[in-house]
Structures are given as structure tokens and as C-alpha cells.
Amino acid sequence: MSDPLIFIESDHGFLAKPHVEYFLLGQLPFDQCQAFQTQLTYRTGERVDGRISVIICEHEPLITIGRQGSRAHVRLSPDQLRARQLETRWVGRGGGCILHGPGQLAVYLIAPLDRLGWSVGNFLHRLQEGVLATMKEIRIPVHGSAGGAIWVRNGLVAVTGCAVRNWVTRYGMYINVNPSMQNYGYVDTCRGLAGEEKGGMSCLLAERPTGVKMAHVRTLLLDNIARSMGCLDYDVYNGHPWTNSSRKNSA
């Protein structure tokens, strides 16, 4: 089975040492996140270093449909979508349909693969390893991982959908921490993924009812993703990254 999560338009080559910068943006409208990804992608394309920019945020409720998804994977009529205040967006990433909302961490990585000497597969492996290490630290057993997806006891808890253009990545991984689960049964995220027979969507809170705090998961992800990308330290920016209110902290 070919990897459904990636498409590549062109490439060029260079090698550099990785360095990670995080932008912690809280709940960010999807369109603003798209615009910021584009801004970071252009900046990365003009740099000669190995800087990896990572946006970590949450979105308003909406459904995105990637290149392996279709409208048939959303089992809600237009009237039902309006009643639930759910918009749908077609996006240029790999993967299928993903339901977003508060309580789900969206982790977008803009990485210059050619300058780092990484293949697409190596990048995806590093990203997945960072998330798996985080789940191990919060003591949630993983029942399987394939094709950029991670399954736990009650279903799919994280899914990857990336794009690569000129060997610069966009998009990333979506991790269900503690979202409202009421609409997940209507969106076939698992369709077309290896291991889809393992069931529908779940979240970390369902695996550990005693409590999973978003801030704790986010903090662990900072350390583990940086480590999986080969970095011992990283920069953290809080607030809106293209305003004067941004603050930088080093970790």
C-alpha cells in the first residue's frame, strides 16, 4: 500500500543542522493558521539553515478533506452540517477527512527536508516517534501505528496529513486530547488507512478518565518532538507570532 499522507511537487538539495522553533497559538482560526503556514513556508524556502518551525494550536469546529478524502466520507447533509455549525474545507494535504475542534492539538511542521538530509519517510517517522514518546510518558498504551496514524484501546487518537513542496513540509499531525466526541461518528477519518478495522476515533481522555491536561500534553510534545527531530534545545514563542505581543522563551 502506498503512503496516502504525502505528495511532492519538486525538490532541491542542501544539508544543515536542525533547530526547532515553536509557536504556541492557543485557539487559532483555520484560515489564519493557513496564512501563517504559507508565511513560514516562504521564509523557510529563502533560508539556508535547518530551522524547523512548529505551530501548535487548536481550531474551531470544522472538517478538512485531504487528497485521499471525499465528501462521501462525511455522513452529514448540508443542512445537518449547518445545524452543527460545521464548515468543510478541501485542503492540499495528504490523508482523508479530519474533524477539528477545541481539545484537539494541531501540530504543523514546516521543515526543509533537503537541507536536513531527510527523506519524507524519515521525517514522518521522527514526527510519529515524538508523539509516541509523549503518549508513553502519560502512560497511555498504543495498540498500533501505521500510515501516520496511532491507535489506542478505543480507536484512532492521532492522524497525520502532510504536504511537501520543494522539499518543505506543511501541515502535520492532529492529536485528540479531550475534544467533544459528538460529531466524530459522522466523519470517516479511518477510511483508507492501514488498520482501519481497529475502529473509529477516540481521545486521550477516554483512555485515562482520571484526567489528561492539555497543557501537560503540549509541554511533553515540545520536548519529545524536538528530541525526535535531533534537537537538544528549542525556542518557544507565545502569543500571536506576527504581532508585537509575541514573547520568546528558550527551553
Mean model confidence by pLDDT: 87
By CATH reckoning, the class would read Alpha Beta
CATH 4th-level superfamily: Bira Bifunctional Protein, Domain 2
Instruction: Give the percentage of residues in beta strands.
Output: 25-35%
Strands side by side in the biggest sheet: 7-8-9-10-6-2-1-11-12
The helix fraction, in percent, is: 25-40%
Class by alpha and beta content: alpha+beta
CATH fold annotation: BirA Bifunctional Protein, domain 2
- What is the radius of gyration computed over CA atoms, rounded to a whole number of angstroms? 17 Å
SSE pattern: EHEEHEEEHHEEEEHHEE
Main beta sheet, described?
Answer: 9 strands, mixed
How many DSSP helices?
6
Mass-distribution shape: globular
Write a structural description.
By secondary structure, the chain is α+β, with helices and mostly antiparallel strands. The protein has a single domain (18-250), classed as Bira Bifunctional Protein, Domain 2 (BirA Bifunctional Protein, domain 2). Helices cover 25% and strands 29% of the residues. The protein has six helices and twelve strands. Strands 7-8-9-10-6-2-1-11-12 form a nine-stranded mixed β-sheet, sandwiched between helices. The protein has a three-stranded mixed β-sheet with strand order 4-3-5, with no helix packed on it. A hairpin with a 2-residue loop joins strand 7 (144-146) and strand 8 (149-152). Helix 4 crosses helix 6 (214-228). The protein is globular, with a radius of gyration of 17 Å. The N and C termini lie far apart (40 Å).
